[in-house]
Amino acid sequence: GGVNMIRSDVIVKANGFSNRFFGWGGEDNDFDGRMKAVGTRMGQRAKSLGRYRSITVGHYRSPGFAEDRFDLLKYTNKMQPYEGLSSLKYRLIKRVESAGYILVNVEMWQTEDPELLVQKS
Predict the structure, then answer these.
(1) Closest CA to 17 of 75, 102, 80
(2) Which residue of 33, 35, 44, 57 has the lowest C-beta tally within 10 Å?
(3) Is the pTM of this model over 0.70?
């Protein structure tokens, strides 16, 4: 796991995270490609600059690797402008505020095949 601090305007500019990855793996590489596409570089900082402690919350555990992750990564640059925040469809199920975090539970779905979004533009 890891921690990233990114300004919200940069996330919007990069069109957020992809909605195409299910299971474990690939989404972090895709997001790195999105950051590079908008001129932002992700990097690691020295351990002396800070630390974090993971919090334990109940969440969905993936059944395993996203088998198609390498195929999906081939299209990061092509899909980034059309697929992500701009194509996200969701319904809020539950929002719980706590002292150190906000837990948000949503149902997500995709109403249109991302490949069709690219063809239409």
Answers:
(1) 80
(2) 44
(3) no
